[in-house]
Design a protein that fits this description.
heterodimer; A: 252 residues; alpha+beta; B: alpha+beta; GMP Synthetase, Chain A, domain 3; 3-stranded mixed beta sheet; 3 helices; globular
Amino acid sequence: MVSESRVTSAEAETEDGVEARGATIEEAVSNALSQLGANREQVEVQVLSPESRALPGERLSTGERRVRVYRIDEHAAGARALLEELLTRMEVPCRVSVRRGTGTAGSSAGGPIILDIAGDDLGLLIGWRGETLRSLQTAVNLMLGEEGVETRRVILDVERYRARREDQVRELAERLALRVKRTGEPYTLDPMHAYERRVIHMTLAEDPDVTTESTGREPARRVVINPTGPAQGGPPERFEGARQGRSSGRSY
Amino acid sequence: MTDYADLTKFIAERIVSNPSAVTVDSRPRGRSTIVTLHVAEEDMGKLIGKTGRNIEAVRAVVRAAGLRHHQRVQVELKDLR
């Protein structure tokens, strides 16, 4: 696989892994691996010049494929391999990568391992409001048998669904906090999952004008945003009345 | 075509402490596929989980695999008692 004659001089090792070139992605990866002294299972590959970006019919100049290869820890590698096998058995064509900045670079302390699943038409892995994604995550963690070991937990994301949803919840929290300040009335949100409620609490933790609390029982537990002072008045928020995520209607 | 029984077995074997005792069986029921899962008695609690959380996760994963082929797949855990 490694074609010795083609090893270029344009390889650079940084603390963030090594960057290497080759005539093909495969060759660039091989070059990086021999430099790191690692095998394919121990690394995460980031393609810097994807072959797919070439236009149809475009002549590709050789020696132009660039990749960056990072060493990942054993646990992340094992988790990725397991998830890949599970998804292969589910016949879901996709790629699994270890998200950068978490548990990489052989950090012994580690944090949760975040695995990103990328591919086309992965809605079935997400499900309604991420239900299926959460189930897949539960199953993978059970299969890895690391129950209760918080730092070694595996978090799954599909095409940054989680990240996008978190942004939405954060925006919602900020918008509703403005409303609570203006009206001086508490606002009760729709039932949410624990991790989404947590995002609301965290978003508004620093705001001295409101406090947040969760009330009710699972699965109907909701966040209430309370004002700490009297109504401040002011114009209504521009997005007032926007729906909370996909739920219908507002809850009071 | 996905072999749902195989998929269920693959998942269950990695969750339980006694993987050799895991057996699966699948059969059609109407328009659905029913996968019957059997594990050692001492592994029932682990597989079911608190308030059925674990078995529900397994079911959701197998169900998602069925969705690809527009098929309904149901995983039933065989009760030994």
